[in-house]
Amino acid sequence: MSLNYGNMMKQAKIMQQKLLEIQQELKKMEFEASAGGGAVKVKVNGDQEIVEVKIDKDMVDSGDMEMIEDMVMVAINDAIKQSKDEAKNKMAGLTGGMNIPGLF
Predict the structure, then answer these.
(1) Disulfide engineering: 71 pairs with which of 27, 36, 61, 91, CB 3.0-4.6 Å?
(2) What CATH architecture applies to the domain 30-95?
(3) Cα 92 versus chain centre, distance
(4) CA distance linking residue 65 with residue 7, whole number of Å
(5) How many whole angstroms separate alpha carbon 25 and alpha carbon 19?
(6) Residues whose CB falls within 8 Å of the CB of residue 78, separated by 6 or more in sequence, listed in order
(7) From its phi and psi, is residue 37 left (phi > 0), alpha (psi between -120 and 50) or beta?
(8) Whole-model pTM?
C-alpha cells in the first residue's frame, strides 16, 4: 500500500486555502448580544474581538455598577459564544465534521 504524497500535499494546500478563506469571512462577521433587556449591547467579530459596547444611559444613571458589570460580562460571553459557534459550524464543513484540535 503506497501513499501518494503529491496528492496528499495538494489536498493539504487546498484545505489550507479554504481555512484562510473561512478565517477572512469570519473576521468580517459581527455577532451581537445583549443583557438586561437590551440595556447592555455588545458586538464582537469572528476573531472574538470586541468591536462595540453600548450601555443604556438609564442604567448608568442608576449607579448600580455591579449590575452593569455583570450585564456587560454576560453580553460579551454570549457574543463570543455566538462567534465561536459560527466558526465551529464553518469548520465542520471544511473538516467533514472531524474535530481537529487547534484549528478553532
Answers:
(1) 36
(2) 2-Layer Sandwich (3.30)
(3) 14
(4) 59
(5) 10
(6) 33, 35, 42
(7) left
(8) 0.75
Q: What residue spans define the domains of the chain?
A: 30-95
Please classify residue 56 by burial: count the beta carbons closer than 10 Å to its beta carbon, then call 0-12 exposed, 13-18 middle and 19+ buried.
middle
How far apart CA 14 and CA 81 sit, in angstroms, is 28
Which single residue is written with the C-alpha cell 467533514? Answer: 96
Residue 98, C-alpha cell as written in the block: 472531524
Give me the residue label for grid cell 486555502. 17
* Distance (Å) of CA 104 to CA 12, 18, 52, 70, 95: 17, 14, 23, 27, 12
Specify the residue for cell string 469570519: 26
